[in-house]
Design a protein that fits this description.
The chain has 3 helices and 9 strands; from the N terminus they run ββββαβαβββαβ. It has 154 residues and is α/β, with parallel strands linked by helices. Strands 1, 2, 3, 4, 5, 6, 7, 8 and 9 form a 9-stranded mixed sheet that branches. The longest helix is centred in the N-terminal third of the chain and has 13 residues.
């Protein structure tokens, strides 16, 4: 099996994080905008494309903030993710336009909306990866860079 690269966007406005909202049998949950890197595409190009596809927003990618290694067999979704090994590169992105679901060209499977989650209350939401919530609060609310490599977290 191959390791898959994924580029994710961290877009903050007024201490709110832009995410996609999805729904499953357990209810609503939230993820960073982003997805798989295509052959011949830089990570910055991948995150720009994914932002247009999933949120209808144009962005200017900046610094790499976090790296997450997701090895599915070690996490709660192992029943259907055990074959997945993915490296996720999370970039600070400056919003050049407002998000608009109607402009989104390719919604993620199960995606129902694009929403702004308050960073101060992010623990109240079913946000994945769950352990990223503390790192986001630390960096953006406490102005402490913290660690970049987060390891295999869920």
């Amino acid at each position: 099996m191959k390791i898959r690269n994924s580029a994710k966007a961290i877009i903050i406005k007024d201490n709110h994080l832009l995410v996609i909202q999805k729904r499953d049998t357990d209810g609503d949950f939230y993820l960073l905008i982003g997805g798989g890197q295509e052959f011949g595409e830089t990570l910055h190009e991948a995150v720009q494309r994914e932002c247009i596809e999933e949120a209808g927003i144009e962005v200017k990618p900046g610094d790499l903030l976090f790296v997450r290694e997701y090895i599915g067999k070690f996490h709660e979704h192992a029943a259907f993710d055990s074959h997945l090994h993915q490296m996720e590169f999370m970039f600070w992105c400056e919003a050049l336009t407002e998000p608009n679901k109607q402009r989104a060209s390719q919604l993620d499977e199960g995606q129902i909306d694009v929403v702004w989650l308050p960073l101060a209350d992010i623990e109240k939401y079913r946000f994945y990866p769950q352990e990223l919530r503390a790192s986001l609060r630390q960096r953006f609310l406490n102005e402490d860079a913290g660690r970049v490599y987060l390891g295999s977290i869920n």
